[in-house]
Amino acid sequence: MALGASVEILDLRHFAATLLRPVLDAEGEVWKQRLHWDYRTSARLLMQYLDNHMLPGYAALEAEQVTGYVFCVYEETKAVIGDVFAMPTPDQSAHTVEQTLLRHLLELLLNSPQVERVESQLLLHPSGTHAAVFASSGFEMYRRLFLVQQIAEIARAPQVDLPAGVDLRAWTDEDLAPAARLIAEAYRGHPDSLINDQYRSVAGSMRFLNNIVRYSGCGAFSPQVSHVIVERTSRELVALILGSRVSPQSGHITQVCVHPEFRRRGLARMLLALTAQRFLRQGATEISLTVTESNTEAVDLYLAERYTCRHTFDAAVWQRHRTA
Ligand SMILES: CC(C)(COP(=O)(O)OP(=O)(O)OC[C@H]1O[C@@H](n2cnc3c(N)ncnc32)[C@H](O)[C@@H]1OP(=O)(O)O)[C@@H](O)C(=O)NCCC(=O)NCCS
Questions:
Q1: Coil, strand, or helix at residue 113?
Q2: For the whole model, what pTM was predicted?
Q3: 34, 261, 311, 312: which has the fewest Cβ within 10 Å?
């Protein structure tokens, strides 16, 4: 379907937040219906950036109304496409608007010599929705699953059967640096480090953690549900689980990982059960998490823990290849 002649694609930085409000409200409804996720905190943050005219991206304008937007953020030489959304319509035109917005942004990024890498995980959009746009621009695509567990079904208390020499305790802010070291170790050669290059280094993992823990980049971080397992002598972390609240009814696990030397001893299973119990105490009725389909160890773990797939989405990655 071609874009109607009346739709203009313009630089997002020209638009004040109030002009995007109807689109963000409509998007919030879809987040709520599809993922049980309260989008209002993210929308508020976006509106601050919009009002500061700092958000790179494009808006779709039709009959003087903003009907869609796309944006990205820059991290040094990487651009991360944060979101694309167009006001739902009874026909296919919203999809066409989103594709047009994405094409404009990709053209900008791929033609910017300082951009070496582009990553995108459009969590809201079912897998395949925009795959053709990314694939035709040379992106690698990875299917990811949005899994959900109904907590009330989890009757059993977590089995705490720890290996000798380690302790389990709640998360504290002092865990940030050791957690970054654990994540870099746990994701070495892992499929998720192809999708998110932050996992490939301790400094990158620290950025990932700061975003989750300090800036609530993925829901409101909850130290009460988040736990670490610590080796007593070295004080290094051997496992961790981090959780955030994404709505009154839903908790979200933003990270779970175990050091390779401590795997297959039931630590992840125990941490998941513990977190479920803590979310339940906070009044949540379900927990969600995302996992890459090819990460079969983790998928097997979650399915064994009675998580079910509510939704699938795509991660897309593009890397500039320089010729010498
Ligand atoms: C996935 C991960 C957290 C599992 O941690 P773990 O402590 O080894 O998992 P557990 O010992 O609790 O395993 C529980 C169940 O998960 C499944 N599982 C875990 N590792 C598996 C593997 N290597 N192969 C097959 N199944 C596996 C099994 O069903 C296992 O039960 P069983 O041992 O009774 O057969 C760990 O492998 C890891 O840190 N991976 C890298 C980071 C990652 O992928 N995190 C998840 C991102 S969504």
A1: coil
A2: 0.94
A3: 261
